[in-house]
Every structure is written in C-alpha cells, then in structure tokens.
TrEMBL record, chains A, B:
It comes from the Bacteria. Residues 4-69 form the HTH iclR-type domain. This is Transcriptional regulator, BadM/Rrf2 family. GO terms for cellular component: cytosol. One of its GO terms (molecular function) is DNA binding.
DNA sequence: GTCGGCCTACTCGGATATCAGCTGTCCGAGTTGCCCTGG
DNA sequence: CCAGGGCAACTCGGACAGCTGATATCCGAGTAGGCCGAC
C-alpha cells in the first residue's frame, strides 16, 4: 500500500504555485520540468484539482495554472482526497458485519492520520 | 490507495485463531471457508506471518496453523507490516532532498496512525 | 505382536494466469493572445 | 491607422498502451500420522 506518485505531484505543484505567488500563472510545461514528469500526465492530475476548485486553469496563450481564491485553507487532506478518491483505507470484505471489531480499530487509526492531514495546510509551508 | 485484501485476511485469521484458543490448530481449509478465500492463497498469506514468528504451521496429517508463544503481544501494526512490507506510505520521488517539507508532514501523519495500530493488540478483541 | 513400508491428509514453494489501477503517450478539439495583412 | 483573419501557444478530454502489483490457481515436493501386511 502506497500513496500514488500522482499525489506527490499534486502536493508539490500546489506548493510551487503558492511559493510563486498566489496570483501568478505557471504553465504546465514549467511545472512538469521541475518535477520530471511529462506535461500531459501532470495536466491530467491538475485537472482533478481544478474540478475541486483548488486551482484555476486558463487556456490559450500565456495560459497556465494559478491558485484558487481560498488556497490558504487547502489542507493536505483535501489534495490527497482529490487525487486518491474518497474511499476508506480499509474495507472489511469478509462479512458485511458492520460491527466487525477489526474494521473499527482500523478506521479509528485511519481517522488519526486523517486529522493530522486535515489540520496541516499548504500555506503553512510557504 | 488501499490496504490489500491480504491484510484483511491476515487480521481475521489471527483473530480466528485467538478466539479458537491459542493452542489449538486450525487447517487452512477451515480458515479459508470462513473468509471465502481460496485455501492456497490464504496459505501464502499465512506463510508471511509464520516467517515473522507470529504463528506456527504444522505439516502432515492433522496439521494446520496455531498461534505463536507471544501471540498476546501481537499488534495490528505487526500484522500489517508483515503483509504490506515495511515501506513508508509516502515517498517524495521528486528531488532526493531529505528536507522536503511535504515529506515531513506526510511522515508525521503516518506516524500518528502507526502509533494507534502499534498500541492495539489482537488479544484485546478476543 | 511388532516392525517397516505405504497411503493419505496436510503444508510449502515456485511457476503461471488474470485483472485492475497507476503511469504515461498521442491526438484532436477548444481557447486565447498576438501578429500580419488588406483596406 | 484599424479591423479581421490567421497563426501559435496553450489547456482539455478521450482513447489507448505498458507496467506493476494484487489476486488467485495449479502442481510437484516435503512431512507427519495412521493403517496394513509380513515376519
């Protein structure tokens, strides 16, 4: 089990944008070069963030990506959830018993990590 | 990102063994039927636990799996690590910068979950 | 009766098949700013 | 000088390929207990 590289790219990209100034646009080319990814792939990842309203994208000449209006409130968890999806880490696929004690322990532990990620905002690192 | 089903099987199997009495053996057939898995696949999973010394396996007629001597100390984390491996959830593959602030946040959050899983022992659920 | 060999019920390990999801590429389409040309 | 068209630089979206890891399955090998027959 691992976080996907896409999550890594998304986190770093948002941090790049934040450090670059919240208003300025950056082309996907430039962002991709800094992370050694192909621009097309990075564009796919960033589109997920666009759909969540975290960042803007401007087409056309001199287009690019820039941060959304509430970027200072974006937490690590927001970004991760946008990329990885909203499914829980653990699913007890054995019996559909909602009282499964193993599931309870796992979900409690997951919540612990989630809380930490919810409280950490990208803006704290700028 | 998700925990593999193998982890789910491993956790439930150990709980089965614990509830069945720490000394008694259970065949992989029986364990597999309760979880709707193929016996051969479950056997592969359980072998990982055998190698970590958590459970014993007895070949031959009336063979099967039984708990190891220190089974009461086995934590959720031990089992998960035996199945999923010891790699960290997050790897900053961008620059090999050990000071990457994103990595630090992620690892801190991961530690939070890890601690919770370390402190939860299977024996608490029996 | 007892000793040894076979048989059966198990686990172990490697090789292999299958499948889903991640990663990445390619191409066509849409959009926007800029330049260039014709009046 | 100005308006309009075309071009170039971008992003967007879908289709598709490759690869890796999870999820199995199969088969041969090893092991232990029990049975059975020969002596």
């Amino acid at each position: 089990m691992k976080y996907s590289r896409a999550t890594d790219y998304a986190l770093h990209t948002i941090l790049f944008l934040a450090r670059n100034g919240s208003e300025k646009k950056l082309g996907v080319q430039e962002l991709a070069e800094k992370q050694n990814v192909s621009p097309t792939y990075l564009s796919k990842i960033l589109n997920k963030l666009v759909k969540e309203g975290m960042i803007y994208s401007s087409p056309g000449v001199n287009g690019g990506y820039s941060l959304g209006p509430h970027w200072e409130e974006i937490s690590f968890f927001d970004i991760i959830q946008a990329i990885e999806g909203k499914t829980s880490l653990f699913d007890c696929c054995l019996n559909s018993n909602p009282e499964c004690s193993i599931k309870k322990v796992m979900l409690a532990a997951e919540k612990n990590m989630e809380e930490e990620l919810r409280n950490k905002k990208i803006s704290e690192l700028v």
